[in-house]
Amino acid sequence: MARMDQERFSRIVTEHSGAVANYLRRRLYPLSVSDLDDLVEETMIVVWRRLNDVPPDAELAWTLGVARNVLRNARRARARRSAMEGHVRTPGYDASAEDHVLADAGVREALAALDDDERDIVLLNAWDGLDTHALAAYYAISTNAAAVRLSRAQRRFRDLLATADVS
Q1: Measured between alpha carbons, how far is residue 141 from residues 65, 76, 94, 127 in Å?
Q2: Residue 88: predicted pLDDT
Q3: By the 8 A CB rule, do 140 and 58 touch?
Q4: How far is CA 135 from the centre of its chain?
Q5: Backbone phi, psi, residue 90, to 5°
């Protein structure tokens, strides 16, 4: 690889590995915290291999998109291992990392009522600070489509929060 590519990759790792680790940590369940370093490393390996595909104006969003796929692959691998070993967990709701972090029961209830895609885009915006341009890069869609998705998800979240039954 050219020296400029190496420098760019080093800069991406330095600037964004913390955000990638935080992104993965908040979404890690059902994987173990001990898997976190491996997931960050695997994400950066993909970034290295596809460095020419990383948009210069959306490096973090693109890298978080890679992390999302790495996490999905790790979850699928874990599920396959569990099924093969015969240790499939009983169905039911296990609290996610978001549930443990959030202290407000109304917010927790409203987030739980959102579907996975709505919750993901709301949290990417609120927790990870991705604006519509970065969300567009993350989802590989247009900025307008990202703005519409975010707006709809936020509106549904506000509606659910307003009607949350917290006793």
Answers
A1: 12, 25, 31, 20
A2: 46
A3: no
A4: 11
A5: -70, 145
Helices (H), 35-142: 36-49, 59-85, 97-101, 105-113, 116-126, 132-139
- Beta carbons within 10 angstroms of residue 119's beta carbon: 19
What confidence score (pLDDT) does residue 82 get?
74
The whole model's pTM is what?
0.57
Domains of the chain: 1-94 (1.10.1740.10), 100-167 (1.10.10.10)
Give Cα 36 distance to the centre of its chain. 13
Lowest mean pLDDT among 70-79, 81-90, 123-132: 81-90
The tokens for 98 are 């978001």
Environment class of 61 (CB within 10 Å of its CB; exposed 0-12, middle 13-18, buried 19+) = buried
Give the Cα separation of 114 and 107 in Å (integer). Answer: 11
User: 9-23, 25-39, 88-102, 151-165 — which is least confidently predicted?
Assistant: 88-102
